[in-house]
Amino acid sequence: MLGHRFIHFDPNEEAKSKFEQLLDIFTQLLTYTNGDAAEALSWLNELDKQYHLTNDAYGMGDFIDELKEHNYIKENEQDGSFKITSKSEQTIRKKSLEEIFGKLKKSKQGNHQTFKLGQGDEINPDTRPFQFGDMLEQIDFTESIRNAQINHGVESFQMREEDLHIRENDFKTQTSTVLMIDISHSMILYGEDRITPAKKVAMALSELITTRYPKDTLDIVVFGNDAWSIEIKDLPYLQVGPYHTNTVAGLELAMELLRKRKNPNKQIFMITDGKPTCLKIGKKYYKNSFGLDRKVVNRCINLAAQCKKLKIGITTFMIASDPYLQNFVQEFTETNNGKAYFASLDNLGAFIFKDFESGKRKTVY
């Protein structure tokens, strides 16, 4: 009988190489430097001076050479500047996914499960008798042959309609999501970096959807004075600007994008830290940063109501704790019949992951 074999444990046997260790730090720094490779390498050099990340056997020059060799960065031959590649962009998204959502393996397409039976992607272990209108590919022939043998005997084998059994499939919903990210100036005010956690969440969510739910769609909208769409590859370079908060423009663009999606399940995730302070009326901007301006707020509330009619749920992640802002979010959420989380920067990713994953058990009719 084969038993257990005990061997000496070597803690360095599966340790990361020096390049892999530095790459982990480098990709983290890229998120903070908005994808600026030169600045990230400069910061890494400072960290090396302070914490001795390299040694005589492997120096920062070796690391830079390997970054170029493995196509993480490319060097401009004219001025010697560095720029990250698409491989680095994908690596940052993967690292964000591992950090926020844990290690999730790729699964079958359209993996938002529901409890509705029918012609779907996932085989259900239960069977039922054949009914008129059932598809041929739904027949469980193993169970049907077994029934025929029991009902008619093996020697005079025959199969009738009453012997047929159907193997049900579970539907898996497909979801269209728009992630709205506030890039107004307040996202870096008061000495607190709020844009970097928002970017990390966006990169992790995009990687989650493209690898685990490839039939789902994700659009990313950023909003300041105006709103515009960005691609997933643009996320590492995202930074705030000298903007007010035009939440209305963000919601209008999100609704426009979702109207074009054929999926019945549509939702908006909005990450913001402040109140709506801006409207665009014609070619002019109406701005008011003092308190909650009802002219701006009422437009937001009206859009929340419109989304409710279109069966578009809005989940707001408010990374601010001001009581009067919470009152606005509560009014906005009640109008949409949506959800709101007053999340700290540390648990923002966990909140979004939990809310997104819960959608696997929901269908909007």
How would you sum up this structure, described in words?
The protein has 365 residues and is α/β, with parallel strands linked by helices. The chain folds into 3 domains: 18-84; 118-170, no CATH class; 174-361, 3-Layer(aba) Sandwich (Rossmann fold). It is 38% helix and 21% strand. The chain contains 10 helices and 13 strands. The protein has helices at residues 18-32, 37-51, 60-69, 86-101, 141-152, 195-212, 247-259, 294-309, 323-336, 348-358; strands spanning 73-75, 82-84, 112-118, 122-129, 165-173, 175-182, 217-223, 227-230, 265-272, 278-281, 284-287, 312-318, 339-342. It has a 6-stranded mixed sheet, sandwiched between helices. A 3-stranded antiparallel sheet has the order 3-5-4. A hairpin with a 2-residue loop joins β10 (278-281) and β11. α1 (18-32) packs across α2. The model is unreliable at 103-123 and 361-365 (pLDDT under 50).
Which terms summarize this structure?
flat, 365 residues, 3-stranded antiparallel beta sheet, alpha/beta
Brief digest:
The protein has 10 helices and 13 strands. It has 365 residues and is of the alpha/beta class.
Beta-strand share of residues: 15-25%
Oligomer: single chain
> Which regions contain 5 or more consecutive residues with pLDDT less than 50?
103-123, 361-365
Average residue pLDDT = 83
Shape: flat
H/E series, N to C?
Answer: HHHEEHEEHEEHEEHEEEHEHEH
